[in-house]
Amino acid sequence: MSNDAMKINRRGLMLVLSSPSGAGKSTIAREILATDPDIQLSVSATTRQKRPGEVAGTDYHFVDKTEFNLMVNKGELLEHAKVFDNYYGTPKKPVMDALEAGKDVMFDIDWQGTQQLSDHAEKDLVRIFILPPSVQELERRLHSRAQDSAEVVAKRMAKASDEMSHYPEYDWVIVNYSLPESITQVRSILTSERLKRTRQVGLGDFVKRLRHEV
Ligand code: 5GP
């Protein structure tokens, strides 16, 4: 029997990464996505302005308020929320297609979006919260990013405390002391969650075949 035939069908999972801005979440997400072909990013729609270096369709679908409202009204978003005066939402179809194909999907969304997904799809969710090692480090990272104005940075610092209060709503919490260590930790979680019996939907058939061959 070929290795392919031995592969066990698996239900895709939804990996949520949340953190206050500047805790290192995007870097961790990028590294996982670049090295793991079985997980893809859910590209959100947002009404916020594109930052330098961001690519439409890759980082976000940049839309205006009218387009965003249309997506909401047509039921095209899995969840949506207002974050820092802008609207953000997760397009439903790409997520459903990926999960059906047995692929995992990563979400870079805030606690409001995570709560909404938890209401609809708790079984498929794996929720990771990333904390900064200190407030000083958070502030330093927000300033060094330098893509946002001082006013925006100040707003994000104020919001960080609020965002951090939601850590108990997550399954796993990582303090980002070192990026390589945090990336390894996210990978470990992903590996373990994929091995959960309930996610390995092809296990029954697989074991049946094994037993038949004994
Ligand atoms: P940024 O503007 O820095 O890219 O993102 C700001 C915040 O919005 C981040 O905490 C990010 O996780 C969150 N966010 C991005 N996309 C979505 C989304 O589709 N839904 C929700 N609820 N939050 C999002």
Blueprint (SSEs and pairs):
Blueprint: H1 3-6, E1 14-18, H2 25-35, E2 39-41, E3 45-46, E4 61-62, H3 65-73, E5 77-83, E6 86-91, H4 92-100, E7 104-108, H5 111-121, E8 125-131, H6 135-145, H7 150-164, E9 172-175, H8 179-194, H9 203-213
Parallel strand pairs: 1-7, 1-8, 2-7, 3-4, 8-9
Antiparallel strand pairs: 3-6, 5-6
Helix pairs in contact: 2-8, 6-7
The structure holds guanosine-5'-monophosphate (5GP).
Report on the structure:
The chain is of the alpha/beta class and 214 residues long. It has one domain: 3-Layer(aba) Sandwich (Rossmann fold), CATH 3.40.50.300. Helix content is 45%, strand content 19%. It is built from nine helices and nine strands. α2 packs across α8 and α6 (135-145) packs antiparallel against α7. The radius of gyration is 19 Å and the shape is globular. The protein starts with a helix and ends with a helix. The mean pLDDT is 92. Guanosine-5'-monophosphate binds at residues 21, 44, 48, 79, 81, 83, 88-90, 108-110, 112-113.
Outline of the structure:
The chain is built from 9 helices and 9 strands.
Most strands sheet: 5 strands, parallel
Distance between the termini: 14 Å
* Largest sheet, spatial ordering of strands: 2-7-1-8-9
Helix/strand-derived class? alpha/beta
**Order of helices and strands, N to C?**
HEHEEEHEEHEHEHHEHH
- What is CATH's topology name? Rossmann fold
Q: What is the level 1 CATH name?
A: Alpha Beta
Tell me which ligands are bound.
Answer: guanosine-5'-monophosphate
